[in-house]
Specification:
The chain contains twelve helices and nine strands. It is an alpha/beta fold. The protein has two domains: 202 residues, Rossmann fold; 68 residues, Helicase, Ruva Protein, domain 3 (Orthogonal Bundle), CATH 1.10.8.100. Helix 6 runs parallel beside helix 8, helix 9 packs across helix 12 and helix 11 crosses helix 12.
Length: 287
Amino acid sequence: MERLVSPKTTKEIVNKYGFKFSKSLGQNFLIDENILYKIVDGAEVDKEDIVIEVGPGIGTLTQVLAERAKKVIAIEIDKTLLPILSETLGDQENVEVINEDVLKLDIHKLIEEKCEGKAVKVIANLPYYVTTPIIMKFLEERVPLKNMVVMIQKEVADRMQAEPKTKEYGSLSVAVQYYSEPQIITKVPRSVFIPQPKVESTVIRLRVLQEPRVQVKDEKILFSIVRAAFGKRRKTLLNALSNSPLQVDKEILKKVLENSGIEGNRRGETLTIEEFAKIADTFCESL
């Protein structure tokens, strides 16, 4: 079959099946071959790789992944796309389409049963409304990953790779960088999709770390502190933590910050991941 990525082929398939784009599912199909290959090349896919693709759509990216990878597991939530995928990927013996909601899937079980239990690569053009939940599911559940290459909203990608002391830096930056090394591959204009989204996109690669960037006594405490610190960005660290769900006396928090070597009048966006880890561990010791 000819490349699905061409605007002409995409429109023909959509019209043939009477497919209706779902705004609730954030469906936008890629029609630019250059961007397509930047995604696949960015993930460094080769014949040894097993790839999990989230949201294959009509199979545009899946088609190229199947040529490069050992196997592709495509997870598609929309049942109306299944007949289309049967046609567009019918001759690809190394592709398996699963009609499931990825957020409800047991990914570890999936990898054990269908991916030989080996580390996989995750590649996806993610709907904007579930970008963060899907990415954090794979990272937080410690799924065996080599890397993730995803196309997401530009604003979210900027936050993921943001450094301290910038306006984009926040709890998402800390969470993603705790588990991985983010790197932007390319920016993507709205014009390369059918239908065109309202925002610009970015392809970002997350190289998943073998171990988290910092070691902490309690990850839940760490991320509770991170969320509290960024929950009220204009407040000082001491005040932000004092008015958080941590429910700890302000005097105790003063002591925790003092013992961590962190000044209470700093703001969350100035702290590195290592500094957040120091506060979390000192907090644990004070309990």
